[in-house]
Amino acid sequence: ALGVIVYYLLSGEFPFPNETSFSSRRQLLTGNFSFMKDKWDSRSKEVINFIDNLLVVDPSKRMSASEALEHPWIESIRKKSSSTIADVENFIGAIQLANEYTQDLLT
Fold first, then answer.
1. How far is CA 79 from CA 6, 35, 84, in A?
2. H-helix segments, the chain
3. In 3D, which of 61, 56, 89, 62 has the Cα closest to residue 74?
4. Do 49 and 73 meet the contact criterion of CB atoms below 8 Å apart?
5. Distance in angstroms (rounded) separating the CA atoms of residues 17 and 61
6. pTM of the model
7. Dihedral of CA 65/58/71/14: which sign?
8. Do 15 and 7 contact (CB within 8 A), yes or no?
9. How far is CA 28 from CA 32, 39, 74, 81, in A?
10. In the chain, fewer beta carbons within 10 Å around the N or the C end?
11. For 65-87, how does the pLDDT look when each residue is reduced to its tens digit (9 = 90+)?
12. What pLDDT band is residue 19 in, cutting at 50, 70 and 90?
């Protein structure tokens, strides 16, 4: 869920568009998505890596909340922002709960 949210916030589009079609549902279930060049060329490699590591279908291979907190992209935001570590941890924790709920719906 966090990967989808970050993808959407930075591009204005969902990584798995048109969720109702068969092909989009298959994309969602297989984790098949792409970064459209016109939307992502100006983005850092760190944020693309962050999203790549979150939009992984297999939860055992997906970046955990604690790993996300240590990711270079989050670290760069933390340095630039006045947010506290607790604020970021609470945000990631809430998204992780949403992600678990989404996974329960898919199984």
1. 19, 26, 10
2. 2-11, 22-30, 37-40, 45-54, 65-69, 72-80, 85-106
3. 89
4. yes
5. 23
6. 0.62
7. negative
8. yes
9. 7, 20, 25, 32
10. C
11. 889 999 999 888 877 766 566 66
12. low
- Please answer whether residues 32 and 26 qualify as being in contact, where contact means their C-beta atoms are separated by less than 8 angstroms: yes
**Beta-carbon-side half-sphere exposure of residue 47 (alpha carbons within 13 Å):** 17
Gap between the Cα atoms of 69 and 48, Å rounded: 15
From CA 101, how far away is CA 2, in angstroms rounded? 12
Any residues with CB less than 8 A from the CB of 40 and at least 6 apart, and which? 10, 11, 48
Tokens of 50: 């962050």
Asked if 63 and 31 count as a contact pair (C-beta separation under 8 A), the reply is no
Contact of 11 with 40, CB cutoff 8 Å: yes
